[in-house]
Specification:
The protein has 179 residues and is an alpha/beta fold. The chain is 37% helix and 22% strand. Strand 1 and strand 2 form a beta hairpin.
């Protein structure tokens, strides 16, 4: 405990969503991992799931806090089903490219296979693949993962974190279903 923490270069914004979006943390550089987790766990989930409002808010936050010093990353976690138009996903990905860097978008299904989350990741992969290459700071490839239990969820996040080690990223986390 009493040891000073190094200042992170990453900024974390945590968005929690069901049919609406709550901003749990916004552009946080200072919180310890424990504080970040405590912030997320203080919320409870319920209601329907609306992927469109969550992605639009993530895009808004990405634009508000854009920095050319960091690579944009979205981790989108859900245990629910919703629908979302491909154009909504294309918009956030293309906007990121227009701002200067391709978006690294990771979907995580907390539960059984989700065709919608897989499609969201595929759209992001397609747009990311058409972005101009950045040889100095290549973006981490977008992914789709399934986490059937808490152990697999932790492994998934560790895998994503490892993939982001070299390019520094801003993290946007969407989540439903934890209580």
């Amino acid at each position: 405990m009493g040891q000073p923490h190094a200042i992170r270069r990453d900024a974390y914004t945590v968005l929690l969503f069901n049919e609406a979006v709550s901003e749990c943390l916004e552009y946080d550089f200072a919180s310890t991992p424990e504080r970040l987790l405590d912030s997320v766990l203080s919320y409870s989930a319920g209601g329907d799931t609306n992927f469109t409002v969550a992605i639009r808010r993530a895009q808004s936050m990405m634009e508000r806090h854009w920095s050319n010093e960091r690579s944009p990353v979205v981790i989108f976690l859900s245990d629910g089903e919703s629908s979302i138009a491909d154009v909504t996903m294309q918009n956030i990905c293309l906007r990121s490219i227009a701002l200067g860097k391709p978006l690294s978008f990771h979907t995580v299904a907390f539960g059984p296979r989700s065709a919608v989350l897989q499609r969201m990741a595929n759209v992001a992969i397609d747009v990311q693949g058409r972005a101009p290459p950045d040889r100095q700071h290549p973006a981490s490839p977008s992914t789709y993962s399934e986490a059937l239990d808490n152990v697999r969820l932790a492994e998934t996040f560790l895998g994503i974190a490892e993939s982001l080690r070299k390019p520094r990223g801003s993290l946007f986390l969407g989540k439903t279903g934890f209580s």
